[in-house]
Amino acid sequence: MIESRYLKDNIENIQKLMQIPALRHFEVRSLSRLLRLSKIREYEDGEFIIKDGDQDSWLYFLLAGSVRIQKDGHEISRIHTMGEIFGEMRLIDKRARSADVIAMGPAVCLAVDTSADNRMAGEEGSDAQMDFLLLLYKIFAEYLSARLRLANEELVSAKKESESLKKSLDKKK
């Protein structure tokens, strides 16, 4: 992994963040705060970004490339759209990472250090900090909702396939 220093909150970096669909609703001061908590991380093909069981506090926005999410060697999902979030579940429930995330080819991510509360504290007061956190959790909720809907569709499809296979086996008996 190649990792930058924490990013600076200059106008060029803020404009780049505004290109990420999930961050378009952020105000400039919130993007500025996000930048001060963020690093750019570049990964090679097959490199682990997140390991199942880890306790780290990083949240990721995919900037380029693709990643595979897997549990016990079974692929759960692939992420390949710029701006998609991963690593958010650990931030919500404070439990260990629940899956591996592996780069599929070169991948570039915006990594946000959510443990860096001290880098946010004291800046513009607690109301601004609360607004920032609420917006971040709104983004999490939108992504989790989309993923839950997809998981529901996949579950129904798997159940239909299972029922069809069971009927096929019953006919052969």
Automatic annotation (TrEMBL):
The keyword tRNA processing does not apply. Residues 141-168 form a coiled coil. InterPro entries: cNMP-bd_dom (IPR000595), cNMP-bd_dom_sf (IPR018490), Env_Response_Regulators (IPR050397), RmlC-like_jellyroll (IPR014710). PROSITE patterns: CNMP_BINDING_3. Keywords: Coiled coil. This is Cyclic nucleotide-binding domain-containing protein. It holds the Pfam family cNMP_binding. It comes from Desulfobotulus pelophilus. The lineage of its organism: Bacteria, Pseudomonadati, Thermodesulfobacteriota, Desulfobacteria, Desulfobacterales. The keyword Zinc-finger does not apply. Residues 22-122 form the Cyclic nucleotide-binding domain.
